[in-house]
Every structure is written in structure tokens, then in C-alpha cells.
Amino acid sequence: MSAPPDLPDIVARAFDVSRRAGYVSFCRNETGRLLATLAATRSGVMAEYGTGCGVGTAWLRSGVRTEARILTAELNPALAKAAAEIFTDDPAVEVFQADWSTLASKGPFSLLFLDSGDPDSVRVDAIADLVEPGGLVVLDDFTPCESWPPIHLGRVDTLREEWLTDERFTAVEVMIAPDASALIATRR
Questions:
Q1: At what angle do helices 77-86 and 55-63 cross, to 10 degrees?
Q2: What is the pLDDT of residue 20?
Q3: What is d(CA 113, CA 179) in angstroms, rounded to the nearest whole number?
């Protein structure tokens, strides 16, 4: 382990809320620490698409060092309500019970955190104009790949390939654990 085992208080609260809600599909601690580190470099408006119970949002919030705002959208009403509990007294975070596209008009974003689970909704062309110049996009939930073109489940991983080759971004895949990687892309 390359990080202290202690969790920031806001992240521990988010884990508690997730457990009470019976929600177990959330941001890994390795991804969370990456998010906190990147959020510490940002100002302006950050966003997350697919809040779940707010663990990723909590990691982002734990890293914020400026007057930045974090907007996050969750389609499932029960999960959105659970996530909103965590940030009730935090004016820097706003949880929307809505489809992620609701946030599109609230950008451009200095950092945008996306789950790669629904590739069609996070394609480069759908996201590029939502990020300010110099802004970051973080996509998680990739399986590490050492080949080019990237292969996943016996097929070319077109989502990963698009992000790593699009001329509007400088992008890299980083391993966050032996079985997990994330893409980080900076808008040119």
C-alpha cells in the first residue's frame, strides 16, 4: 500500500451512507486518492457523472483547496438522496437527482469525473466541449492493458482508444492497482 490507511472524514461518512443504503459499487480508494490529488490542483466548477452514494464526490471534496464547487448527478432517487445526506451542510457540493446531461449546461468544468461503465455516454465527442482548456477528465473502471490497440474481453477497446488518441486532449492511462486503471485527459 502506498497511501496511509486512514480515510478523510468526509470519505468515511460517504462509506457509512453507502453501507446503510446497501450500495457497494463505489469509487475505489486508489481512484479516490487520485481524485483528491487532482482536485487539489483545480478551482472553478468540478463535476461527477454517476454519483452513486457520493464516495467519489467525497474524495473530490477531500482534496479541494480553493473556492471550487462540485456538482454531481445521480439518476436513482434513493442513491441521490443518500449522497445528498453527506453534503447537507456543505455549500461547495450540490447533488442533483437527474441524468448526467442535466449538468452539461453548468460547465465548462475544470475537472470532470466519469465512470467508463456506459461507454456511449462518455465518448470523447460527447464530453470534449464540457471541459475548459486545461481542464481534466478522469475516467475510471478500466482493466489495465499492455497492448496497442487496447484490447478488452477480446475486442478493441474503442473508448480507451478514442480518449488516448484524440487531438483535443493529452491523455494517459495510469494503473491505480494491479487490476484497475484510469484514464486522465487534459483538454488542450
A1: 30
A2: 86
A3: 20
